[in-house]
């Protein structure tokens, strides 16, 4: 028996070495490749109810800006996406009356340059800065309030609920809103009109017809002078006739 054990020992050692060599020689599993870049319009297209928002993202080039920034920034971004119904509920002509510059501001107002979860928005410090700003450099902000686990967003002009998330993973969060977020700086009651009215005269208003009726014309004055001259000449001839 001892002889058998001595004979098998080298075989067992050789089998162990061969087995360990085979295991070591197996190729390692490939490392996961880099994550695909985030594309906001592709995410919105899958949502199926954001055609108007997508069109404005493309026409203003804000969509490209978001894609570039969100894939290169460590802060991430948050987008509040109005549905097609939200745009349809706007006052007719609201978008068409905006210049291209103001349309860019309106879309940027729906974008925050920081990643927020819904839990973050429940306790965030207001106002939350957006990508929109005025000509003076002042940043437009959003205000968030909570009712239980519900988050509401207010602009000073409209207030609506922050609905479900189309995407909630870093670096981009996209939340659905049922109203277009109208910045108070652009749509508020105290908004300065493009053309201020001129100073009002202290004198009472007089219509053109009244002016024409009240002021004698040059033609009527001339006619009166001619009539008076004829009467004078007639009297002179009458006097001469009597003297003769």
Walk me through the structure.
43% of the residues lie in helices and 18% in strands. The chain starts with a helix and ends with a helix. Mean pLDDT is 78; it is low at 192-221. The protein contains 10 helices and 7 strands. A 7-stranded mixed beta sheet has the order 2-1-7-6-5-4-3, sandwiched between helices. The protein has 244 residues and is α+β, with helices and mostly antiparallel strands.
Overall shape: it is globular
Number of helices: 10
Query: Count the strands?
Result: 7
Gap between N and C termini: 190 Å
Spatial strand sequence of the major β-sheet: 2-1-7-6-5-4-3
Give a topology summary.
Layout: H1 2-25, H2 40-47, H3 51-59, H4 62-70, E1 77-82, H5 84-88, H6 100-108, E2 111-112, H7 118-122, E3 128-133, E4 139-147, E5 150-154, E6 159-167, E7 172-177, H8 184-187, H9 208-214, H10 218-243
Parallel strand pairs: 1-7
Antiparallel strand pairs: 1-2, 3-4, 4-5, 5-6, 6-7
Short description:
The chain has 244 residues and is α+β, with helices and mostly antiparallel strands. 43% of the residues lie in helices and 18% in strands. A hairpin with a 2-residue loop joins β4 and β5.
Keyphrases for this structure?
alpha+beta, seven-stranded mixed beta sheet, 7 strands, 10 helices, 244 residues, 18% strand
